[in-house]
Amino acid sequence: TTVPLPDVYVRLRATVPELQQRIAQRGRPEEQFMINDAAYLNLLERLYDDFFATKVPPVPVINVDTTGMRMNGNKEIDHDYLKRIYTQITSGIEKLDLPKLQRKEGR
């Protein structure tokens, strides 16, 4: 069976210091080496850049900056931050002119 292509990819990005902070907070033992290895995280970013530029079919990519995302006391993403991400994604859809993904009036 062939899986249909998505209409768009949403790529979540953050700065290396932000990623290192999140890794430290999460505390997973297998990830801890990345806290002091910015070169590894930079390599991963370059590999993802290459992946989206050359390895995937020609599907638009909306890059969402998640730098500054914070969790509330319940370990949920802050509501105001989610609104900001939603705005970035819907703006990206409008710029890419993806009509079947655009929000219909009255919804």
Polypeptide structure, described:
This protein has 107 residues and is mainly alpha-helical. Helices cover 44% and strands 9% of the residues. It contains 3 helices and 2 strands; from the N terminus they run βααβα. The chain has a two-stranded parallel ribbon with strand order 1-2. The model has no long low-confidence stretch (mean pLDDT 82).
Task: Summarize the model shown.
The chain has 107 residues and is mainly alpha-helical. It is 44% helix and 9% strand.
Write the layout of secondary structure elements.
Elements: E1 9-13, H1 16-26, H2 38-55, E2 61-65, H3 79-96
Radius of gyration: 17 Å
Instruction: Output the strand order for the largest sheet.
Output: 1-2
**Overall morphology:** globular
Q: Catalogue the unreliable spans.
A: none
Category by helix and strand content: mainly alpha
Mean of pLDDT? 82
* Count of extended strands: 2
How many helices?
3
Estimate the strand proportion: 5-15%
Spatial gap, N to C terminus = 34 Å
Order of helices and strands: EHHEH
Largest sheet: 2 strands, parallel
Helix content: 40-55%
Features:
single chain, 107 residues, mainly alpha, 3 helices
